[in-house]
Each structure stands twice: as structure tokens, then as C-alpha cells.
Design goal:
Blueprint: H1 2-39, E1 46-48, H2 52-78, H3 81-104, H4 110-113, H5 123-148, H6 155-176, E2 184-185, E3 207-208, H7 210-237, H8 240-261, E4 269-271, H9 272-348, H10 355-384, H11 392-407, E5 410-414, H12 424-445, E6 449-457, E7 460-467, H13 482-493, E8 497-502, E9 508-515
Parallel strand pairs: 5-6
Antiparallel strand pairs: 1-4, 2-3, 6-7, 7-9, 8-9
Helix pairs in contact: 1-8, 2-3, 2-9, 3-5, 3-6, 5-6, 5-7, 7-8, 8-9, 9-10, 10-11, 10-12, 11-12, 12-13
Length: about 525
């Protein structure tokens, strides 16, 4: 358990370090892109692409709305405060993108239609800037609140309050935007002659105002702070979605920096800031998919763990029942048989007992001994059926010694090294095969010495039981011989192979080979 926790911790730290590397690489790439926009005229920060802004705004609206829904569901399921603020922030972004989309599809100005540009509306950058400012602030507050362990109570107010405030701003900006200082310089409305000032006769692009420049830089700074706080939150929780969000917020921050110097007021005018904002949405979309895959994988692992726990619980219950039965056999039936044997011994010692009665007592004594042997075998088999306290080697050694003591035979057990563990079923069946082989020695072999040797050879456990008894001809064994048939069946169940080598007056040797990777039922035939 400690080793698995250490491995999980190392894996998590490696994932966190990888996030830092991705963030650093993202900053380098975006800084290089910014330099290209500033210093390479062919790249530029503003381009007229009629209809492209419609596609970008639609994509951003759908993605941010989807992220808001996912964050809200996450909050309802696990109660993470950061998810509540994320849901509110992305709902605000979705509303801002949707409002921008409505402006893009608004009425075209005849004088600019030839250039693919919609009528400039100062309300559009005002609404977009307000939405981004509110969203960045919500993301910063949410990450800070979660890091401090504060649990907000008014979740509906946090979710819908900022959205309602932005809707009020949209209503105000649509009617009274002229009362607010402009965020970008719009030259087209007041001086159409400036059309000739753009190369090839195109309109003059909007330029930033001090207010717009300052607001976008503040929003970009808030996105940077939100990215850092989200990174810290990811280091604490390891949530995959937070890692993607931290990377996406870097794109959002650079998008605000670009918009500060290259504002977009016209519909049909696509800026580098717009492209970075869309890249932010794309990273969020990838994060949703990655988070979903991680969630499905986690659920799969949880189901596997539950299955293993259920199997362990069932196995533990079976082990407890086996232990109870073995204890009852040992303390109940075995003790009663010993008492019956003692009483029978006293009865057989009475002088007035007839010879016929003494013969019956001897038969009963043999039957009781057989019953005691069967009880011992049952106790051993029950103890081996679960996770035994003794190894297979120790159990076999104990049984062989007990067998020799009970029947007055020279019983020897040889096993140089500890035997590898098999499945509990395989070990139990292997022990029962050995027990049946030893019982046949007593019943049929008339032997004085029996040897049991166990070891590992060619990825198999080999068990050999040999005696110096009278032996027999294997081909003459009746099909109904229960002892040998039982050993064959048990060997077949565990995928093993049983061979019998015996000749009249030359003893018997029974060999069992069981593969180390055993436990599944085999269907192969057993050789003789």
C-alpha cells in the first residue's frame, strides 16, 4: 500500500511538472507570435475577413456556454467552490460573445459594405470588455476562495448575479454608449474621406484610446493572475480540467494584450486578439474532452476496485466459514471419534468378551481410525481452501508426518525449497491428491516405506508419491476404481497431469505435475 501511494505521488508530481513546462512553452510561443505581429507587416494585428468574425464569435459562444454548464454540473456533484465561480465566469463570457455575435449580424453600412465591414458600433467593445473584466475577476476570486477553503453559500446569486449585471450593461450600452468614453478610436463615422488613408483604398483601422488600453491591460493582468491561481489549485487537487484552464487563461491574457493595441470595432475586422480568444475557447474544448476521458477512466478504475473489494469480501466470508467448519470438525467430530475409540479400547480389554465380539471391536476400531483420518484430511483441506497460515510445503510435511505416526509406516517428505504459491483451489486439490495416494498405500499396497517428494521443474510443481508395496498392473485396474479416478479428476480440474508407474511386487509411484500459472479449469486428458 505504501509503495502504491509513493508511485501515485511520483506520477502526480510528474504530471504537475509537465503542466509547468506546458505553461512556460505556451508563454514563449505566444510571446513569439506577439513579436511577429508587431514587427512583421505581413502578419499584422488586424485583417478584413468578411464572415470569419461571425464564425469565431459563434464558436466562442457555444464553447464558453458548454464550459459553464460543465462547471455547474461539477459544482452540483462535488461542491467545489472553484467550479461555481467558473460556471458564473463562463456564463458571462458566453453572454458577451453572444452579444458580439448579434452586433456582427446587424445592419450593414452601405459605405463600408464593399470592404466587407459592418457598421462600427462602440457598444460592442464596451460590452465585450465588460464581460471579459467580470469573467477574469470571477475566475480570480473563485480560485482564491477555493485555495483558502471558503465555501460560498449564495450559489444562485454567484451564478446568475454577474450574468444579470452584464445583461443590464448590454441594455445600457445599446442605448447610451455615447455617454461612455470610447475604448477605441473610430474614424470612419466622422470622416469617410479617411478611406483613402489605408493602403489600396481600405478604411483606417480602429486605434486604442487610453481608457481602452488601460482596461484591456487590466483584464489581461487578471487573466494572468487567474492562470497562476488555477495552476496552484491544480497542484493541490490534480484536476485535469484545471490544468487545461490554466493554459487557456494564458491565451486569454495574451488575447487581451493584443486587443489593447489592436481593437476590433467593425464587424468583419478580425484581429490577432480575436484569434487568441478563439484559441482560448479551443483549449477549453480540448480540456472538456480530456477531463471526460479522465473521468471515464477513473470510473472504470473505481468499478474495478469495487469488484476486487467485493471479491475480497466474498473470499473473506468463505474463509471465515471454512475456519468455523474446520474448528467444528476438530473440536466436535474428531473429539467424539477419539472418545469412541477410547471407550471401544476399554470394551475390548474386558476378559469376559467373546472372540467374536473382540473381532467386531477390532473392525470398529479400524473404522474409527479411518473416520479420524478423514476428519484430519477435511480439516486440512478446509484450512487450505482460503489463505492458509501455513504454506503448501509445511502442510504437506505436517500431513506426511501425521500419516506415518497414525499407521506405523516409515513416511518421508522431501522438499528442498519453498514451493511457489498457486491458487487456493489448486493447492487444496494438490494436497487432496497426495492424501488419496497415501490412503491407497495403506489400503492396498501393504508397504512399509512411503516417500513424498515435492519440487519445481520446468515451470511446474512436481509431486511424487512412491512406496515399496506390492504394486499392481495399471492396465488391469477396473474403471470403477474410485481412488485413482478421483485423483485424475482433481488433477484435470487444476490443469495438471497425473501419471502412474507401477508393476507387481515393485511398488507404485504416482507423479503429479501442475503448471505454476494454474487456477483455470483444464479440459486435457490425464495420462496413465
Amino acid at each position: 500500500m505504501l509503495l502504491s501511494r509513493s508511485i501515485a505521488r511520483v506520477t502526480r508530481l510528474d504530471r504537475l511538472d509537465r503542466l509547468d513546462a506546458v505553461l512556460a512553452a505556451t508563454v514563449v510561443v505566444l510571446a513569439s507570435f506577439t513579436a511577429a505581429v508587431v514587427f512583421l507587416p505581413m502578419v499584422g494585428g488586424q485583417h478584413v475577413e468578411a464572415g470569419l468574425d461571425l464564425v469565431l464569435d459563434t464558436f466562442a459562444t457555444v464553447v464558453t456556454l458548454g464550459v459553464a454548464v460543465v462547471a455547474w454540473v461539477r459544482y452540483r456533484e462535488i461542491g467545489a467552490p472553484v467550479a461555481l465561480f467558473q460556471a458564473s465566469a463562463f456564463l458571462v463570457l458566453a453572454i458577451a460573445s453572444g452579444a458580439s455575435l448579434l452586433f456582427v449580424v446587424g445592419k450593414l453600412d452601405v459605405s463600408l459594405a464593399d470592404f466587407g465591414l459592418n457598421m462600427p458600433r462602440e457598444a460592442q467593445p464596451q460590452i465585450t470588455t465588460a464581460g471579459h473584466l467580470m469573467a477574469a475577476a470571477l475566475l480570480v476570486i473563485g480560485a482564491a476562495v477555493s485555495l483558502k477553503g471558503i465555501r460560498p453559500r449564495q450559489h444562485w446569486l454567484i451564478l446568475l448575479g454577474p450574468a444579470a449585471a452584464l445583461l443590464a450593461i448590454i441594455q445600457f450600452a445599446s442605448s447610451w454608449s455615447h455617454l461612455v468614453p470610447p475604448l477605441s478610436g473610430v474614424f470612419i463615422l466622422n470622416n469617410l474621406s479617411s478611406l483613402s488613408n489605408w493602403p489600396n483604398g481600405q478604411p483606417v483601422p480602429p486605434s486604442p484610446t487610453p481608457l481602452g488600453l488601460g482596461l484591456h491591460l487590466v483584464v489581461g493582468g487578471l487573466f494572468v493572475l487567474a492562470a497562476e491561481l488555477t495552476r496552484r489549485h491544480h497542484r493541490r487537487t490534480g484536476a485535469l480540467g484545471d490544468g487545461f484552464l490554466a493554459v487557456g487563461l494564458v491565451f486569454a491574457a495574451f488575447g487581451e494584450f493584443h486587443t489593447a493595441f489592436y481593437p476590433s470595432t467593425y464587424g468583419g475586422l478580425v484581429t490577432s486578439g480575436d484569434m487568441l480568444t478563439v484559441a482560448f475557447a479551443a483549449v477549453l474544448l480540448i480540456g472538456i474532452e480530456a477531463d471526460a476521458r479522465a473521468t471515464r477512466a477513473a470510473l472504470g478504475r473505481a468499478n474495478e476496485t469495487l469488484g476486487r473489494l467485493r471479491d475480497v469480501e466474498v473470499r473473506q466470508a468463505a474463509l471465515e466459514e471454512r475456519t468455523r467448519l474446520s474448528r467444528e470438525l476438530h473440536d466436535g467430530l474428531a473429539q467424539d471419534l477419539w472418545l469412541a475409540k477410547l471407550k471401544l479400547g476399554r470394551l475390548n480389554a474386558m476378559p469376559e468378551l467373546s472372540h467374536e465380539a473382540k473381532a467386531v471391536c477390532d473392525e470398529l476400531s479400524g473404522a474409527i481410525d479411518a473416520g479420524l483420518a478423514d476428519a484430519r484430511q477435511a480439516v486440512m483441506a478446509l484450512r487450505l481452501g482460503g489463505e492458509p497460515a501455513m504454506s503448501l510445503r509445511d502442510l504437506m510435511a505436517h500431513y506426511v508426518d501425521d500419516f506415518g505416526d497414525r499407521f506405523g509406516l516409515r513416511a518421508e517428505f522431501e522438499c528442498e525449497d519453498e514451493l511457489p504459491r498457486l491458487t487456493p483451489r489448486a493447492e487444496a486439490e494438490l494436497l487432496r491428491i497426495a492424501q488419496e495416494a497415501l490412503n491407497n498405500v495403506v489400503r492396498h499396497a501393504d508397504a512399509t516405506v512411503v516417500r513424498v517428494r515435492a519440487g519445481v521443474a520446468d515451470s511446474h510443481i512436481e509431486l511424487l508419491v512412491g512406496d515399496n508395496g506390492m504394486g499392481f498392473e495399471p492396465s488391469e485396474v477396473r474403471d470403477g476404481c474410485f481412488g485413482l479416478a478421483s485423483m485424475r479428476e482433481r488433477a484435470q480440474i487444476i490443469g495438471g497431469e497425473l501419471t502412474i508407474d507401477s508393476r507387481p511386487h515393485d511398488g507404485t509411484r504416482i507423479r503429479i505435475r501442475v503448471p505454476l500459472k494454474t487456477g483455470e479449469r483444464a479440459t486435457g486428458e490425464v495420462s496413465q
